[in-house]
Design brief:
The chain is of the alpha/beta class and 552 residues long. 35% of the residues lie in helices and 19% in strands. It contains 19 helices and 20 strands. The chain has helices at residues 3-8, 13-16, 31-46, 78-83, 113-116, 120-137, 206-210, 216-231, 235-250, 285-297, 302-305, 311-316, 350-361, 381-394, 411-418, 437-440, 446-459, 477-489, 516-528; strands at residues 22-29, 53-59, 62-65, 87-90, 98-100, 104-110, 143-145, 148-153, 161-171, 174-182, 202-203, 321-324, 328-329, 339-340, 365-370, 399-403, 425-427, 465-471, 494-499, 533-536. The strands form 4 sheets. Strands 1, 2, 6, 7, 8, 9, 10 and 11 form an 8-stranded mixed sheet that branches. A 7-stranded parallel sheet has the order 12-15-16-17-18-19-20. A hairpin with a 2-residue loop joins strand 9 and strand 10. Helix 10 (285-297) runs antiparallel to helix 13. The longest helix has 18 residues, at 120-137. The chain is globular and about 70 Å long.
């Protein structure tokens, strides 16, 4: 057992709920040794042998690579880094590449979220709040940025600078890994990486922002007070934990490695979900296999990036919806949690990696979607084409469904390019009723979406066309009815109708939870209007059971 783990002590499980938060200062330490200490503490916390514990440390120069392979980007080789005495470590926390060195404040909470009464989204926000408050006391104003983990200073856009990174992992409701805040470290170490896979990100520090050096001991004192304030146990917090323990499980949060918001989009669970919107915890051999394949191939999914509530169920069936063209969208729709900003250029290796994934998962049906890429002349159509044909070359029996953006500036061109990848089901979502577009889908155009579906129907005579609409955003029944009629007039023959669930704290609020009986009613109405394939249910999403040939 390590010295730090030993120092934490062993507590009888009956005392753990009232045991104080243990804070261990590791001083300047090698990353690998502290990582081992985290694993030991994590195992012991899960077994109720120790209380909640936080490690505080400054690391010797090291670059760490996270679980999201596409965000792990080094500018020089590992061999060259070794010559500069910079270690490189592959780990399993969320996020991508980051760096640590002396003068950077790092802390690793090993906490039981159930006992603290925290969901994962609340835990992430609490880490952010600790960082914001600490930096404020040091003279720096830092903020969150939607879709960009960590803390940032400066105006939104090209001028924003990153000052703190967050990468966590949660297993069996117990946390490890944590947060790194740049105080007065040498920022040149970040020149060797693309931080978190985001191009053109400038890293900054308290020293750079204020011009003042700080006593690391004083900074640690502030951090310790904030940790005790946020994570120290009180009677009220223990009661909330007991009241909410079962609810956390019912919401179906994936506590294995989820670093975003609740799967059901409850923004921390402050709004009570009706019984029909509760999910069991994802588990099983097939689920784990799907997760491992996606990680090993570095494939992005809409399941993760949009916080889909069906991830556990779909992955357990061995299916996942691939997200191509990166995970940064050029638009900022308020119903969606996918990050918005300036995307990177398409990855030319992505089609081959998707083909590898399809082989490993033995897929028979593959749904491919993408972020909106208004920055590309063809909207990304050529990349869709390449992904389909590469998979088809290596897995000839796979059938395809594509869920495309609206190709706002290039619809005719995109339709022609995609014709070279037939056959497939062509899907494009109208998402909501037109009156709600300004609030929910400001970058979209309802008539433009209908036009795309009509062009696809006319151009791809043998292909089914499909769309999806969310309920619960404040739409009227007459508006939903008109959308269904408009879709039929555009030649759309497949439809999914599902409940909107808030996927992130910055997303639109849920206006209404629609009952299963009402969804059944809408299914019958869609069939009456002539749709040949209908899924209408609270958890229905555009790719939910997409592989089914007949769902009437």
């Amino acid at each position: 057992m390590s010295a730090v783990a030993e120092k934490a002590g062993i507590y009888p499980s009956t005392l753990l709920r009232s045991a104080p938060l243990r804070i261990c200062d590791c001083g300047l330490a090698d990353y690998r040794s502290v990582l081992q200490q985290q694993h030991e503490l994590h195992d012991r916390r899960r077994q109720d042998e120790i209380p909640d514990t936080v490690l505080i440390v400054e690391h010797r120069p090291v670059i760490t690579l996270g679980a999201r392979q596409s965000a792990n980007k080094l500018k020089i080789s590992r061999e060259e880094l070794a010559k500069q005495h910079v270690d490189v470590v592959d780990i399993r926390r969320g996020g991508g590449t980051t760096a640590h060195n002396p003068g950077q404040l790092v802390f690793y909470p090993v906490l039981n979220l159930r006992e603290l009464g925290l969901g994962i989204s609340e835990y992430i926000r609490t880490l952010e709040e600790i960082g914001i408050e600490l930096l404020e006391q040091l003279g720096v104003s830092a903020e969150r940025r939607k879709g960009f983990p960590g803390l940032w200073v400066g105006p939104l856009g090209a001028g924003m600078k990153k000052i703190a990174s967050i990468g966590v992992r949660v297993s069996k409701f117990t946390t490890y890994h944590g947060m790194a805040i740049n105080i007065q470290n040498d920022l040149s170490i970040f020149d060797h990486i693309i931080p978190c896979g985001l191009d053109e990100v400038e890293m900054t520090s308290v020293l750079k922002e204020t011009g003042e050096r700080k006593s690391m001991e004083e900074v640690k004192k502030i951090l310790k007070m904030l940790l005790c304030k946020r994570f120290g146990k009180t009677e009220g917090r223990r009661q909330r934990a007991e009241d909410r323990g079962q609810k956390t499980e019912d919401r179906g949060q994936n506590t294995e490695d989820k670093t975003k918001n609740s799967e059901l989009g409850t923004a921390g669970g402050r709004r009570k979900l009706p019984a029909w919107l509760k999910r069991p915890l994802p588990a099983g051999e097939k689920y784990n296999h799907t997760k491992d394949v996606l990680r090993s191939t570095g494939i992005e999914t809409i399941c993760n990036n949009a916080n889909c509530p069906n991830r556990g169920e779909c992955w357990a069936r061995g299916t996942a919806t691939v997200l191509i063209l990166g995970n940064v969208c050029t638009r900022n729709c308020k119903f969606c949690s996918v990050a918005s900003g300036k995307p990177q250029q398409p990855d030319p290796d992505e089609p081959a990696r998707i083909a590898e994934m399809a082989k490993k998962m033995e897929l028979k049906y593959l749904v491919i979607t993408s972020v909106t890429r208004d920055d590309l002349a063809d909207g990304g159509a050529e990349h869709f084409h390449n992904c389909i044909n590469e998979v088809r070359q290596q897995c000839s029996d796979v059938k395809f469904e594509i869920l495309t953006p609206d190709f706002r500036h290039c619809q005719e061109r995109a339709i022609k390019i995609l014709a070279g990848a037939l056959p497939f089901v062509f899907a494009h979502n109208v998402e909501t009723v037109p009156s709600l577009y300004p609030a929910a889908r400001a970058g979209g155009d309802y008539q433009l979406s209908l036009n795309l579906l009509k062009m696809a129907r006319q151009s791809y005579k043998s292909a089914a066309t499909k769309s999806s609409i969310m309920l619960g955003l404040g739409e009227a029944d007459t508006e939903v009815e008109q959308v269904l009629k408009d879709l039929r007039d555009a030649g759309c023959d497949r439809i999914t109708i599902g409940q909107y669930l808030k996927p992130s704290k910055d997303s639109l609020e849920v206006a209404e939870y629609i009952t299963p009986a009402k969804f059944d009613w809408w299914k019958q109405r869609a069939i009456e209007l002539g749709f040949k394939w209908v899924i209408s249910a609270p958890f229905a999403r555009s790719s939910y059971f997409a592989e089914r040939q007949n769902v009437l």
